[in-house]
Amino acid sequence: MLWRAPGRRFQVLAIRDFRLLLADRLLAPASVGFSMVGVSFAVLNLTGSAADLSYVLAAQIAPMLVFSLVGGVAADRFPPQRVILAANLAIVAGEGTFGLLVLTGRPPLWAMIALEALNGTGSAIFYPASQALLPRLVPDALLQEASSISRLAMNSGQMTGAAAGGLLVAAAGPGWALTLCGIGMTGTVPLMLAIKGTRAAPADRGPGMLTALREGWTEFRSHTWLWVIVVQFCLIMMAWCAAFQVLGPVVARAHLGGPAAWGAITAADSCGLIAGGVVSLRFTPRRPMLFVVLTGGAVAISPLSLAFVLPLAMVCLASFCLGVLVEMMMVQWVVAMTRAIPPGMLARVSSYDALGSMMAMPVGALIAGPVAAAIGVSSAQFAAAGVIVVVSALALIPRDVRTIRSDQLGAAGAAPGDAAASEPVFAAPR
Question: Would the pTM of this model clear 0.90, i.e. be above it?
Answer without folding.
Answer: no
